[in-house]
Design a protein that fits this description.
The chain has 595 residues and is of the alpha/beta class. The chain has 20 helices and 22 strands. Helices cover 44% and strands 17% of the residues. Strand 5, helix 7 (200-213) and strand 6 form a beta-alpha-beta unit. The model is unreliable at 326-331 and 591-595 (pLDDT under 50).
Length: 595
């Protein structure tokens, strides 16, 4: 006991010190970001704060990206549509800065994250308001989809990021027992990202955080539908980088249309794309010219499966939230609902009751549950999907209501709609809607719902609900998708240690988690001597040049010694191998004696 007592005291003291260090908050400086020109009351007083009438049809390359509030059509300003030469200049500047940043310490990188986190926590209302104005979503949806997800990613990187970027030692195998094998992770250079409009804050921060923490630079092209907010969020990044002494031009946010994005793909060391499958294919084609790695996070048509043994009131609330994710602008939102026939009528009636209570209107002008649709003419496309379903036998079980849109109401709103009697011949069950539509279909057995859920060209995520967790897990394991939630929805994305991505037309590659962080790295396999300089690699005599007559026989015995099926097979081969070596050594001596 006298021997162990001092060790116990030391262990207790060490644990106490760790607890005290945990309780002591780190020193994180505050930073100021100029937001005077983006505050709503300022813009309302500007002479150019007029109602904007956007052009209809596909966006074309012009010299300006014009921005407006989708809920009110108030003009917000414009940003330059960069030319290919301008894009290449941005990438060149970022590349120069990255060479300096690649030598930065993890301590410096963590401080960058802490400064960002502190600013986000202190300015949640500003960040959410800007997202709301630029995309039409409500403040609550902005907080859920923008703030929480970004804070979770930052805290995961703070807690675990360094661990997963340090060298990782691996087993060396039977033939290399005298070696040490490891994987090292080095920055790739400049990470390019082309991101969508639905989460303007998180979609900028998500690739930037992984890129910068792993020692890279980042050049991010924001969507032409969310350039105003993206360029303000860039100011936050710039201020935080300046606060930690990072080199100038490490991160860039650029604006433009297709030509701008194509130039970015041609210039960077890796590209991350969040968008549609059609554009994703063009990104791949362009990336093939320089053979850079590509991560594609494309469309989704997630299945939401409800078995008959669930806690129905809770599941109904989750289902409505899943369908209306981000004011009907659902990235990772559920778009196909499969409900067991035994609870189908009850489920539908409860969903309809909630949907009818939902009001739609300008998100910052009143207490509304849903805001506007961001993209031009998208409400018309949503209505076409509903019309197609109705013509093929579906019925509208219930709809939400419009709030006070006023005299200047614009065609950027779509009330949530519940469809019943749907089937897979309808476009609403096959095409990505990106809108607040709940098509609900019956199923009779687990086998049937698995087949239905897999009958899609998309494979991003799924959610399975059952009172029997093993049953839910079994169903989810047979669905061909990249993300699954058991008795929950989209919870996997809040676990930032997990990778995120899909299969089929939902893309490939992963961001988030260990896999996403390491995807920003050059992964290098390294083998070194374990006991250098005492044990070194030497080529065995029989296979040294010129190769001896029994060289192949020696090699055969070596393979059997290392990989024989049983221990006895390997021992027998080893004995024969040693015998061959001894005979070869004896042969020259015998010849010399005879000579």
């Amino acid at each position: 006991m006298a021997f162990w007592w001092p060790l116990l005291v030391l262990a207790a003291a060490y644990a106490l010190c760790r607890v005290l260090l945990f309780l002591i908050p780190p020193t994180v400086p505050s930073m100021e970001v100029d937001a005077s020109d983006v505050l709503e009351e300022v813009n309302q007083n500007k002479e150019d704060s007029f109602i904007y009438i956007p052009r209809k049809g596909k966006a074309t390359q012009t010299d300006k990206v014009r921005c407006y509030e989708p809920a009110t059509m108030k003009y917000l300003g414009y940003f330059p549509a960069l030319t290919p030469d301008e894009v290449r200049e941005h990438v060149a500047q970022a590349s120069k800065a990255q060479k300096i940043w690649s030598k930065s310490s993890f301590k410096q990188r963590r401080q960058f994250l802490r400064i960002l986190l502190k600013y986000i926590l202190e300015h949640q209302d500003l960040i959410c308001e800007i997202s709301s104005r630029d995309t039409g979503k409500t403040m609550v949806d902005a907080s859920l989809g923008e703030i929480m997800t970004t804070c979770e990613k930052i805290t995961w990187l703070l807690d675990e990021g360094e661990k997963w970027l340090k060298p990782e030692y691996r087993s060396c195998g039977r033939s290399m027992l005298h070696k040490r094998a490891k994987v090292e992770f080095y920055p790739l250079g400049v990470i390019g990202a082309i991101v969508s409009w639905n989460y303007p804050f998180h979609n900028v921060f998500n690739p930037m955080l992984a890129a910068v923490f792993s020692g890279n630079a980042a050049v991010i092209k924001v969507s032409e539908h969310a350039s105003w907010s993206g360029c303000f969020y860039y100011r936050i990044i710039q201020a935080a980088l300046l606060a930690v002494g990072a080199p100038d031009n490490l991160v860039h946010v650029i604006t433009g249309f297709a030509e701008t994005g194509q130039a970015l793909v041609s210039s960077v060391d890796k590209i991350i794309f969040v968008g549609s499958p059609g554009v994703g294919r063009m990104i791949m084609q362009k990336a093939s010219e320089t053979l850079i790695p590509v991560t594609l996070e494309l469309g989704g048509k997630d299945a939401f499966i409800v078995c008959e043994d669930v806690d129905l009131p809770n599941v109904v609330q989750v289902a409505v939230r899943a369908a209306l994710q981000s004011s009907g602008q659902n990235c990772a939102g559920a778009e196909r609902f499969y409900v067991h026939k035994d609870i189908y009528p009850t489920f539908v009636s409860r969903v309809v009751k909630i949907i009818k209570s939902i009001s739609v209107g300008p998100p910052l002008s009143g207490r509304y549950d849903m805001g506007a649709i961001c993209m031009i003419e998208h409400s018309e496309r949503l209505q076409n999907l509903v019309t197609d379903a109705l013509e093929k036998g579906a019925e509208i079980a219930g709809r939400g209501s419009f709030g006070n849109l006023g005299e200047d109401a614009v065609d950027q709103f779509f009330i949530p709609t519940v469809l019943v009697n749907v089937n897979h011949t309808m476009k609403i069950m096959q095409e990505e809607a990106f809108g607040p539509i709940l098509p609900i279909m019956k199923f009779s057995s687990d086998e049937e719902v698995i087949q239905l859920a897999n009958d899609s060209k998309y494979g991003l995520g799924c959610a399975v609900f059952s009172g029997n967790q093993k049953r839910a897990i079994k169903i989810a394991s047979q669905l061909h998708c990249g993300v699954a939630a058991i008795n929950d929805f989209a919870s996997s994305y809040m676990c930032q240690s997990l990778p995120f991505g899909g299969v089929k037309d939902s893309g490939f590659g992963r961001f988030a988690g260990v896999e996403g962080l390491r995807a920003c790295c050059l992964v290098k396999a390294v083998v070194e001597d374990r006991w250098w300089p005492y044990i070194k690699t030497m080529i065995p005599k029989p296979i040294q040049y010129p190769v001896s007559e029994n060289g192949f026989g020696f090699q055969q015995l070596l393979v059997e010694t290392l990989y024989g099926i049983s221990v006895w097979d390997r021992l027998r081969a080893l004995v024969n191998l040693l015998k061959m070596i001894s005979e070869q050594k004896a042969t020259p001596a015998t010849r010399k004696k005879r000579g």
